[in-house]
Write a structure and sequence with these properties.
about 220 residues, alpha/beta, Ubiquitin-like (UB roll), 2 domains, 4-stranded mixed β-sheet, 3-stranded mixed β-sheet, 5 helices
Length: about 220
Amino acid sequence: MANVTLAIQQCYHSCSAEVKVIYRPLVVSLVAFVLVSIPRFLSAQASCDKPFVVLGVSLPKTTQLSASEQAAIRARLIGRCFDDQQLGELASGVRDALQSIGYLRAAVTVMGWDSDASDTSRYPRPVSLNVEVKEGAHYKVREIQLHGYKTVSADQIYALLQIQVEDFFDSNKMRETAEALHKLYAARGYLNASIVPRFDFLGGPEVRVHFYIVEGPQLP
């Protein structure tokens, strides 16, 4: 019985040592991340040569955008430095982001900003943007057409499509599909193959997606 007790004690102490060895580097790495990240953020703000920096973003309460889509808009704007001549540029960035995920008729306007009147000493001055968003219809993919493929089968191409019929339009998925198809052709010796994604509007909130392929010569 004494031997069993001694073995348990030895195991306890050795296990504790293992846990400490694993745990301590984790704590160090987290501390290092915080210590490195904070100076980088402060440095970015210190280097801003514009009078305002976005601290918050106010969106219409009537918007139909999901919580994650609203968060994506805020993440795109938070921390941006700007002057009063760049409101259109800020709006264009948000519109492009919405269009890339299927709100192809989205309209965005930065109506102005609010700031703390009691805090005028900071530069750039932190403000909260008032952003008017009319997202419009959320477009879906109704058809997908392939053009110009010869040496690769349609099944091989369809197996790499990251956007499918009935998905919401997503330009990032179209780009990633084009990149995957280029890798497929490169693996077969068509290093100069060109894959260009396009789309056109159908009736209603629907689009037809195209992938135009120019295979080029096969290299030895």
